[in-house]
Amino acid sequence: MIKKILSVAAMSTALLFVPIGCDDDSSSSAKAAGPVIGDSISGSGRLAKEFFGPIRTPSGGAPQSIGEYALGCIVGAEALPETGPTWQAMRLSRNRNYGHPVLVDYLKDLSVKARDQAGWAGLYVGDMSQPRGGPMTSGHASHQLGLDADIWMLPPQRLNLTRTERENLSSISVVSSDYLRTNNNWTNGHFKVMRAAASDDRVARIFVTPAVKIAMCKTETGNRDYLRKIRPWWGHNYHFHVRLNCPAGSPNCVPQWTIPKGDDGCAYAEEFYGMHIAKTIPIPKADPDAPKAKPKLAKTLARMPAQCAPLVQ
Ligand SMILES: [Zn+2]
Prior knowledge:
Number of strands: 13
CATH class: Alpha Beta
CATH architecture: 2-Layer Sandwich
Distance between the termini: 55 Å
Bound molecules: zinc ion
Strand order of the largest sheet: 9-12-10-11
Strand content: 5-15%
CATH topology: Muramoyl-pentapeptide Carboxypeptidase, domain 2
Number of helices: 7
Radius of gyration: 19 Å
Order of helices and strands: HEHEEEEEEHEEHHEHEEHE
């Protein structure tokens, strides 16, 4: 039984998690194993996050997302206003409330839907991107193109939180401590917000903890097409992560593979759920003959798309 679950997990990892690294905000489980090495071509190659992290303002220019979701940057980003009629940006000290104008518009629209469809006051919006995108000094493999945003699972009680309150308030987890099921924090309002979030044509994917995907699959009785965009991923218990498609006018934005229509991904979520179960049982000792993990290339400025370096130099 254990072996079976683990082999399913291994197969899923090998076959299904092909694309660009998804975000991993809090847990280490999604991080690839193996050492990180410098860029062998550029030699010294300083890490790109050292350049992008300290910059406090966006660049000028027509908005353009450049590169991959987990290795790229953004020209002409726009700030999500810190407070709006139906949203607040959280953790302002991080200065990560920037994105492509399409993302800013999307978040404003979704916050109105959260109010109108779910009866929430609006949304608490977590990390988007740094002012010029790029790798961050902490957390997040992705969020580099101004096209990703984390939305808190905590339904806002108030939308007049002070800066300090926005630093100290915590979101809530909507799953049990063993990750196997949704807990009492998960409501029909969450279902409606996530349905609205994923049904939008601007959205490529939404990452969320597997138990939530399964809950969405079980609750939906109407059109199931949007469900395919909701992808189970580690972490994402306290927020869900929205990723938009490459927008018009960004010819160097690298899209992820398109999720085919016709499969709602619910069976896949059950499979992924098996991986969570696998995590809760003792894992057999690693096979000493297993091939070594490939070393991961460090995200140096030299490895960034050519148009990104001028943004920070
Ligand atoms: Zn995220």
